[in-house]
């Protein structure tokens, strides 16, 4: 499968995919054909370049409207003809053009146990709420925010001494493994989505 990965930050989830694919994309079942971002100057883009992978950047403020940005992001992604698009810390909500084109083959990873704590501050919100366990969720993206059909989740304990950074780091250790496992299975075994249920490789 051809993957396009979208990033906005450090790109450690991207790096986990790069490391898992290594020099055996056939074995993994997928290769990353491009990495897209919504901003320049992030480590995620450096990681792609270090791996010799083409990159593209679509910055919201470079476009007159959000819809035009969405169209640009859709076109830039479509140019690489991906089978699957992976949002790995991509911090923008895509619009209707992107979903029309990639809905059903666009997955996101979120650092909380959805439907708890959706949005851009899932780790902070879980910590503030005082939950004893949190975790991460890999799901298909739909037209809501972090509301699409869930593929897999991983549980992470919250410790009394945790601050947001420490907890997020512990979540990311689980999240990176979960994302690699899910993307590999989707790519190798195929899948179908029935309502809110995802059947992988059946
Ligand atoms: C991940 O925890 C992702 O779920 C969240 O932001 C983090 C991105 O980390 N949205 P990285 O850029 O993959 O290191």
What characteristics describe this protein?
7 helices, two-stranded antiparallel sheet, seven-stranded mixed β-sheet, alpha/beta, 202 residues, GART_AS
Q: So what's the oligomer here? A: single chain
Rg value: 16 Å
Number of helices: 7
Strand line-up of the largest beta sheet: 3-2-1-4-5-6-7
The percent range for strand residues is: 15-25%
Number of strands: 9
Average pLDDT, rounded to a whole number, is 97
Task: Note the main sheet.
Answer: 7 strands, mixed
The molecules bound to the chains, other than polymers, are:
5-O-phosphono-beta-D-ribofuranosylamine
Q: Compute the separation of the termini in Å.
A: 18 Å
The helix/strand class is alpha/beta
Q: Helical content, roughly?
A: 25-40%
Order of helices and strands: EHHEHEHEHEHEEHEE
Give a written overview of the molecule:
The protein is built from seven helices and nine strands; from the N terminus they run βααβαβαβαβαββαββ. It is an alpha/beta fold and 202 residues long. Strands 3-2-1-4-5-6-7 form a seven-stranded mixed beta sheet, sandwiched between helices. It has a two-stranded antiparallel ribbon with strand order 8-9. Helix 3 links the parallel strand 2 (31-37) and strand 3. Helix 1 runs parallel beside helix 7 (164-189) and helix 4 (66-78) runs parallel beside helix 5. The chain is globular and about 45 Å long. 5-O-phosphono-beta-D-ribofuranosylamine binds at residues 7, 9-13, 44, 88-89, 109-111, 172, 175. One of its GO terms (cellular component) is cytosol. Belongs to the GART family. Its EC number is 2.1.2.2. GO terms for molecular function: phosphoribosylglycinamide formyltransferase activity. Pathway: Purine metabolism; IMP biosynthesis via de novo pathway; N(2)-formyl-N(1)-(5-phospho-D-ribosyl)glycinamide from N(1)-(5-phospho-D-ribosyl)glycinamide (10-formyl THF route): step 1/1.
